[in-house]
Amino acid sequence: MMKVLFAASEIHPLIKTGGLADVAGALPVSLRQAGQDVRLIMPAYQGILEKLAPVQAKTNLGDPFGIGDIILLETLIPASDTPIWLVQCQSLFERSGSPYLDQYSKDYADNHIRFAVFSWVTALLASQGNLLGWQADILHLNDWQTGLAAAYLKSWKTEHIPIVSTVHNLRYNGSFPMSLYPDVRLSNELLDLHGLEFYGQFSTLKAALVYSDAITTVSPTYANEILTPEYGDGLDGTLRAHQDKLHGILNGVDYNEWSPEIDNNIAQKYDINNLDLKDENKKALLIENDLSPDLSKPIFGVVSRLTEQKGLDLVLEAMPSVLKSGARLILLGSGDPNLEQAFLQLEKDYPEQVGVRIGYDEAYSHKLQAGVDSLLIPSRFEPCGLTQLYALKYGTLPLVRKTGGLADTVFESGDAANGFVFERADTQSLTDTLHRAMDCFNHSQAWRQRQINGMKYDFSWQKTTATWLNLYQSLLD
Ligand code: ADP
Ligand code: GLC
To answer: Which residues have CB under 8 Å from 458's CB, separation 6+?
Structure first.
């Protein structure tokens, strides 16, 4: 049995802003089911403790950063009995709302300290098992919020513990002005070109890439893409230098959360043998959006963070062409205020065909997956993407740009066809693909076959458990 300390800054169902939370909520559970002793560590954001079992132990780690006492709490996630440590520090984590952004949607000015402290505690726990009576064999980091843990371990020169770092999104590289470096209490020795230095700043993600024993990312295609300047976000050189330890392992789906046959969020449960029942969800969603429950034309959907990455500006430009042919669009998203406004404007322009909800709503995201015909994901880059995997399970055909994990999971041609795919990130390519989807919708047999292909495919975490265990094991040999 391997002991793995899994560090993440968001974990579903405790707190979530995107796919990282889904992964951190499911992969450790699946590894535990495979007999491994995986435990979690996350910051104690406001309101988190109410979602957990009563705290079993408390350890005061003092005030080494001069920001108030840091306290480590130990408890369990009730649904899965997974042990979790929470890093409590009043001045850093007791804030309402997003884990990263203030009320104006700006990064907190002290994010470098907040996640340095989280990473510091993670490193302490990983290297000094005697502190809490549990010594990890492997430390598994996720994204920039945890990257400095690898730097602390490097600088402390404690006994080596193998580190795996998973990159969920290279665009968020945790880079901060050099003037803030003293705040994270690391030595200047780590600051050279082969260390934390990143175009005159310091990058916490680069620390993870450089000082880990293995780097994983969340799909095979993205693992190749990030070695190129086009997708490497300035870190492609570093990644090429560490290519021999880079692995692309596709994310999975937690089918206990995402299956139309057991989903309590949706109007009507259904499965592959009762696919006509999906219509009830389509009608319910249209009615909820004050649109006519007419199922003769397709309903396109979007569930997404509204950022440049997701390519939704292309949807704004391409959509009118298919709206004129009778399609509908239902969107749930939040993020960039310009995109939010533009989609609200589209709704005003096409009040009988477009329904837009700005915000974050977990239950409604399930209703939307069940209630649309096709989910649009025209991403400029997509490390893995989970919403297309959820769509497939709900008999909702993903319409995607061929990049990253989307390229690995959605196919337009061949026997395994399960959606629609385009290559170039431009309006014309998306418009053409929307029209192809409209045509296919009119050939109900072809559409149904794609739905069935998608629903049959198994993207469960259990499928990659062996790959993860082999990777961990290879670091211990
Ligand atoms: P990313 O992590 O880049 O945002 P993913 O596709 O991996 O993309 O994961 C997104 C996750 O966040 C999915 O679980 C999706 O359903 C969810 N999600 C995104 N936007 C919203 C929203 N506005 N409301 C509810 N859930 C959302
Ligand atoms: C990131 C990526 C997304 C991926 C998710 C989980 O947020 O943008 O593509 O699915 O992490 O790994």
So the answer is: none
Residue nearest to atom 10 of ligand 2 (CA): 385
For residue 73, report the phi and psi dihedrals to the nearest 5 degrees: -110, 145
368 alpha carbon, closest ligand: 1
The Cα–Cα gap between 44 and 352 comes to: 44
Q: Can you give the pLDDT at residue 192? A: 85
* Domain positions in the chain: 3-252+461-476, 275-456
Asked, colleague to colleague, whether 3-252+461-476 and 275-456 share their fold, the answer is yes
Say whether pLDDT at 86 is over 90. yes
Pick the CATH number of 275-456 from 1.20.1050.10, 1.10.3080.10, 3.40.50.2000, 3.30.450.40: 3.40.50.2000
Whether the per-residue pLDDT at 157 is higher than 90: the answer is no
The angle that helices 19-33 and 462-476 make with each other, rounded to 10 degrees, is: 80
From ligand 1's centre to the CA of 387, what distance in Å? Answer: 7
The set of residues, in sequence order, having a beta carbon less than 8 Å from that of 17 and lying 6+ positions away, is: 10, 98, 99, 100, 305, 360
Query: Model confidence over 27-84: pLDDT tens digits?
Result: 999 999 999 999 999 999 999 999 999 999 999 999 999 999 999 999 999 888 999 9
Pocket test for ligand 2, best of 215, 384, 468 (most atoms within 8 A of CB): 384
Nearest CA to ligand 1 atom 14: 19
18 lines ligand 2 (CB under 6 A): yes
- Kindly list the distances between the CA atom of residue 379 and the CA atoms of 313, 339, 423, in Å, as whole numbers in the listed order: 10, 14, 10
Residue-wise pLDDT for 239-265, tens only, equals 999 999 999 999 999 999 999 999 999
Which residue is closest in CA terms to ligand 1's atom 15? 387
pTM confidence score: 0.97
The pLDDT, as a whole number, for residue 245 is 98
Beta carbons of 73 and 57 less than 8 angstroms apart: yes
Beta bridge partners of 75: 84
* Tokens 């249209």 found at: 286
**169 Cα to the center of ligand 2, angstroms:** 6
Regarding the beta carbon of 405 and ligand 1, being less than 6 Å apart is answered no
Ligand 1 lined by 360 (C-beta under 6 Å): yes
In DSSP notation, 80-112 reads: TTEEEEEEE-HHHH--SS-SSB-TTSPBPTTHH
Q: What is the pLDDT of residue 441?
A: 98
Region 3-252+461-476: CATH code: 3.40.50.2000
* Count of C-beta atoms within a 10 Å radius of residue 123: 27
- Three-state DSSP class for residue 120: helix
Ligand approaching nearest to the C-alpha of 406: 2
